[in-house]
Amino acid sequence: MKLKQLEGLLGDLEQFSNPKVELEQYPTGPHIASRMLFTAENSYGDITDKVVADFGCGCGTLSVAAALLDAASVIGFDIDPQSLETATLNAEELEVEIDFVQCDITKLELKGQIVDTVVMNPPFGTRKKGADMEFLSAAMKVASQAVYSLHKTSTREHIKRAALRDFNAKSAQVL
Amino acid sequence: MRLITHNMLSCNIKGVTNGFPLRIEAGNVIKKEVDFNPDFIRHMFAKLEWKALVEGARSMGYAELPEDSPDAAVLESDESFLKKLHHALLELHLEEGALVCPETGRKFPVNKGIPNMLLHEDEV
User: Where residue A137 sits, what CATH number does that domain have?
Assistant: First the structure.
């Protein structure tokens, strides 16, 4: 699939009708979502035929992108039932299979090494301090190969340091 | 929810040490075919909790998987085994039902294919 095609499909997805500010809900734009997943696959081979988890999936933009890039299996996790309903509709609309789980990802321990890649656009921690690091910590425990995550530019060095020092990352890069 | 997802879910209620695997109470199960990718299935085999998968599949009405995890040699020699594993992992969907904690009996409901793993305040 070409990047432009992926971006176009993601642009048609339903988004939050009543975003909940306390959960920092906002859509992941098709421009960044398509480029993020395209890079993850084309430069690193982390999406196609892999098991991909989307933490804080919201309306499912990153999950759908992973499925469109032929991930072998995609699982989206979110705390909010309305978002998960929208995400389900989005997956049906684009005829992709995605499993969704409703949970608090910071309190969920996933067993085993099944997940290869975690993709996410986590809360930045503007409402609940430290939320971004909690999501990152959870993702690092689950992903056996790679984590792709969006964060505030101002936190770049902090995140890199934490990933390498505290979360057992072998490497950390800004892409 | 498919069995590939069930294979990683456990009960995270505070104090529970034996929360895996979650027992499946199947209300409504549907089957949806997806493309068979033998390399992916081979790759997954070593990463699966076999007993959890077999029991989960049985609860969803599919009893074709062997009770004991077979020798890895079967991955090369037996395509019908790979197809059964593919079917169990990726083609069975639990739409309505519950996931039950083996230690506490707490039920996590599954509605429209989505398990609700949110804990109550006193369980955290």
Answer: 3.40.50.150
CB distance from B56 to chain A under 8 Å? no
Asked if A110 and B8 come within 8 Å (Cβ–Cβ), the reply is yes
Q: Which residue of A has its CA nearest to B2?
A: A99
Closest CB to B12 among A88, A101, A109: A109
pLDDT tens digits, residue range A139-154?
999 999 999 999 988 8
Q: How far apart are CA A98 and CA A112, in angstroms?
A: 20
- Note whether residue A173 is domain-resident: no
Residues of chain B found within 8 Å of residue A72, distances taken between Cβ atoms: 37, 40
DSSP letter for each residue of A59-95: T-HHHHHHHHTT-SEEEEEES-HHHHHHHHHHHHHTT
Residue A175 maps to a domain: no
In this predicted structure, what is the pLDDT of residue B27?
96
**Does A36 reside within a domain?**
yes
Which domain does A16 fall in, by range? 3-165
Structure-block tokens of residue B84: 């059964």
Judge: A72–B37 Cβ closer than 8 Å, yes or no. yes
What count of CB pairs under 8 Å joins A to B? 75
Q: What are the φ/ψ torsions at residue A7 (nearest 5 degrees)? A: -60, -40
A55 close contact with B: CB closer than 8 A: no
The CATH class given to the B3-116 domain equals mainly beta
DSSP letter assigned to residue A116: -
For chain B, which residues make up each domain, given as ranges?
3-116
In chain B (124 residues long), the average pLDDT of successive 10-residue segments reads 98 95 98 96 96 98 96 92 97 98 98 97 91
Q: If you search the block for the tokens 């995550």, which residue do you land on? A: A149
